Amino acid sequence: MSETKKTWLITGCSSGFGELFVQKLRASGDNVIATGRNAKVKLAHLEATGAAILDLDVAAPADKIESIMAEAWDLYPDGIDVVVNNAGYVMTGLFEELKQQEIEDIFKTNFYGPLNITRALLPKFRARGTGTLLYMSSQAGMYADPSATGYCASKHALEAAVECLSLELAMFAPGIKLLLIEPGYFRTRVWGNINYVPTRNPEFAEYNDAVRAALESQLGKEPGDPDKAVSIMIDLVNGTGVAAGKEIPLRVPLGSDGWSRIKSKCETVLETCESWEEVAKSTDYP
After folding, report:
1. Which of 9, 198, 218, 245 has a CA 20 to 30 Å removed from the CA of 90?
2. Contact (Cβ atoms closer than 8 angstroms) between residue 6 and residue 29
3. Which helix (H) or strand (E) holds 34?
4. β-strand 176-183 against 7-10: which pairing, if any?
5. Sign of the C-alpha dihedral, residues 42, 45, 46, 52?
6. What is the CATH number of domain 7-257?
7. Helix (H/G/I), strand (E/B), else coil: 245
8. What is the pLDDT of residues 49-107, one digit of tens each?
9. Which residues are known catalytic residues?
């Protein structure tokens, strides 16, 4: 059992990272509020852990989320200590074939949902002076792929918003900690539940079929072990295990594939800055 019992609110608990968080945290003695859509059905298997089960669709309007967060805060005497913004989905489709509504829908879940939860709880965290907000981003938050506009854009936007918030909290509420996790491919159900945008232009049919076949061929072969990842994320929040004695950065990549892609992206950006330094600086006034 952890030295100080914490209360965690976790979104997207029906499977994958979310489900593992619930199981591990309850086993360690922490309080857990497990949330998800249609929670009575989809989270019924978690009731035996002793977690509180709460129905939450992160894509709901902001006022609805605010009401549910108020309910969640009152479930335990000392409120909520840690929020794990885990709910999200992957959408695959070429930009030219994407409809605006499809992009708006993935933003409601992957971007607005975590931010609305954050906005609802921040006043309570600030009043208390402590709290941790963990955001499940992705290598896609730093590294773009073809056929992934909706997903990459939502994760890029989430990372930018959380980074801005981290700078604000450093001034107004330094006791509140933020953490962006950037996983690569892990063996969770997310890759078996991809939202494939239908082919709307026959010119792209062969390519779309190839993308789908490639993704489906990787199911069950993803390099990342979700059990290990969740244990490390808990360490990062608690400052234990692999995180003991370390200064925790805002962003932490997980998985060899995610790490290598993010590193490659950073090296490319640095190379561009160095190659174009003279041109960039030449635009300044004398």
Report:
1. 9
2. no
3. strand 31-36
4. unpaired
5. positive
6. 3.40.50.720
7. coil
8. 999 999 999 999 999 999 999 999 999 999 999 999 999 999 999 999 999 999 999 99
9. 151
